[in-house]
């Protein structure tokens, strides 16, 4: 993914950093939880397709910084934290679809696990197919099974992380800088996968708030 997004996306995606601000942190976290719970429960109670599609494309339309302002300060293991990570994952794919598709394909070849199946992408999967998968995952938050959506996102991250590691190995001798960038990306995706998997387990237990 690029080191920085350009307007309307202004948060550096390469670092998955939380946005910093001068407001009361406790109030921001409480607001994050309240808005996430209200939004998800309200839309799931009446999943109007037009509303769902607007929510799927929210970060693309308003900028990932708008999502960050809502939910990025919340704990990783919370509903707002999970939403922030799902939108950030979709934006990563949207902003660098070619590399994401290459890494995902490498990951499918490298992994000997059920993750490629759980992620739900076709084989082979090009940029458009992966963007469609990201949209499907976000739709699942609002009109499907949230646990399944989180598990799919986690599996997608694990596959792509494995692919980034494989690409880094290939680039190590000829392009050490590129190899280092890919290695960092793999580590961030692996961490994201762990967080999303934990959120899925919490939701399955009725403890994701």
Automatic annotation (TrEMBL):
It comes from the Bacteria. GO terms for cellular component: DNA-directed RNA polymerase complex. Keywords: DNA-directed RNA polymerase, Transcription. This is DNA-directed RNA polymerase subunit beta. The lineage of its organism: Bacteria, Bacillati, Actinomycetota, Actinomycetes, Micrococcales.
């Amino acid at each position: 993914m690029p080191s920085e997004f350009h307007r309307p996306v202004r948060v550096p995606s390469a670092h998955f950093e939380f946005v910093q601000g001068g407001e009361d942190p406790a109030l921001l976290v409480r607001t994050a939880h309240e808005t996430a719970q209200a939004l998800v429960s309200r839309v799931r109670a009446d999943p109007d397709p037009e509303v769902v599609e607007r929510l799927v494309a929210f970060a693309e339309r308003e900028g990932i910084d708008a999502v960050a302002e809502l939910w990025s300060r919340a704990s990783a293991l919370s509903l707002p934290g999970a939403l922030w990570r799902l939108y950030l994952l979709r934006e990563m794919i949207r902003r660098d679809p070619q590399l994401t598709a290459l890494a995902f394909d490498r990951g499918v070849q490298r992994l000997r696990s059920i993750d490629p199946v759980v992620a739900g992408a076709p084989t082979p999967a090009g940029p458009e197919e992966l963007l469609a998968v990201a949209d499907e995952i976000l739709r699942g938050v609002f009109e499907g099974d949230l646990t399944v959506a989180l598990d799919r996102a986690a599996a997608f991250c694990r596959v792509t992380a494995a692919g980034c590691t494989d690409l880094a190995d290939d680039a190590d001798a000829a392009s050490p800088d590129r190899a280092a960038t890919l290695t960092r990306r793999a580590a961030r995706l692996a961490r994201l996968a762990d967080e999303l998997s934990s959120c899925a387990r919490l939701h399955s237990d009725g403890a994701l708030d």
